Amino acid sequence: MSVSVLSPSRLLGGVSGILQAASLLILLLLLIKAAQLYLHRQWLLKALQQFPCPPSHWLFGHIQEFQEDQELQQTRKWVETFPSACPRWLWGGKVRVQLYDPDYMKVILGRSDPKSHGSYRFLAPWIGYGLLLLNGQTWFQHRRMLTPAFHYDILKPYVGLMADSVRVMLDKWEKLLGQEDSPLEVFQHISLMTLDTIMKCAFSHQGSIQVDRNSQSYIQAIRDLNDLLFSRVRNAFYQNDTIYSLTSAGRWTHRACQLAHQYTDQVVQLRKAQLQKEGELEKIKRKRHLDFLDILLLAKMENGSILSDKDLRAEVDTFMFEGHDTTASGISWIFYALATHPKHQERCREEIHGLLGDGASITWNHLDQMPYTTMCIRRHCHPMQMIGIMVVLSIYGLHYNPKVWPNPEVFDPFRFAPGSAQHSHAFLPFSGGSRNCIGKQFAMNELKVATALTLLRFELLPDPTRTPIPMARLVLKSKNGIHLRLRRLPNPCEDKDQL
Q1: Residue 393 pairs with which residues in a beta bridge?
Q2: pLDDT digits (tens, 9 = 90+) for 40-49
Q3: Which residues are annotated as a binding site for heme?
Q4: First-to-final CA distance of the chain
Q5: What's the mean pLDDT when you consider all of the chain?
Q6: Residue ranges of the binding site
Q7: 7-12 average pLDDT score
Q8: Where are the transmembrane segments (predicted)?
Q9: 456: closest CA among 353, 335, 386?
Q10: Contacts of 203 (CB under 8 A, 6+ apart)
């Protein structure tokens, strides 16, 4: 009696053979992949042999040296030990060369290479492909389109709007101070103030948003996204979008993006509704200079192919974030630096008082007449800036490089005194080259206005129980906030005039 070709034993034997063949194929593919990774790593080691670095694990790289929120401390150690640059191994064959030498900075920033897709793509779900992430001709068109929004004639009246927002914040601080020298976490208040400023200046928002709960939710979403993005870059398992979307961090990122987009969409929709009013569009077109949102909306309305809704949102999301979070961080650190260096704080106050008196409004012309205050501000402008994925321009490392800045830990505003000799690329708070920060003048103006008006009203003192712990994010942040004691000064500037 013959055995059927479809008998269970023969079927099992066939399946087993297929599984064995598949296993061998998978094993072969894994071996090939491992060989490729090994050869790639060996090639990288040879290519980077002129840049020494600490020993690294073949799989985990330097992950042990860069523990959670120890990024800045480790960077400064490497800057002191390794000249000009240092490779940092992430995992497997992934490496980034950290540069902190001004000559290297000058060469890289002088090039026109497109930004690597790399880690920048993690920003895309949040801010889209606006001016920060775009490349090539599209970037050039957007940059050229938006440059008029930062013309001096547009920035001049913004000084009065900035002053209004600062005074609202200072009034809030006075009400919160239950007693003299009361401690206060200032970063959250400053973030609301800078968001208020950007809303007034770039988006023509009427009134103050510093007591608006929606604004506070937006700022919290931005804080969450800063943390989540930084964590994702460091995690090898979070590099794949699909895998990341299934994690709790991925879902959290999605919710935070939604909150941020709801806020910016509301800003755009409100302005669009205003433009629908009869005569309003023609009135805006007759302006001598258009603000940021004017330019975006008119470019969209006059020629839909120039800016799609997606492009419009990307530029608004980009500028909303960059226009408030970076300046909020800068102002907060400046206040802390002045609180811990009372002699410099008092000298700034004397300069500002001599310029503004007790009741004069602050104007555009005043901003260039406070050299010492400007020197103190420049000392503590430390945004984090990343260029590309294989090469990282460590702005923080550059600014703490003892070869470039002797005794970088010392607070010395005279490093920035007029006429002081320094390398053209030794100080890059706003990056450099063709892709430097388009809003750098706006930011510096806001830093000066906030510092001047605050020093006229309060003496800043540190809170010895809560020293800030710097941590690397998209911009320099403090892990435990920035806590100061505020002492109300006699004979303060009470002027409420507006430009």
Answers
A1: 99
A2: 888 888 888 8
A3: 437
A4: 106
A5: 86
A6: 437
A7: 62
A8: 12-32, 120-140
A9: 353
A10: 267, 271, 291, 292, 293
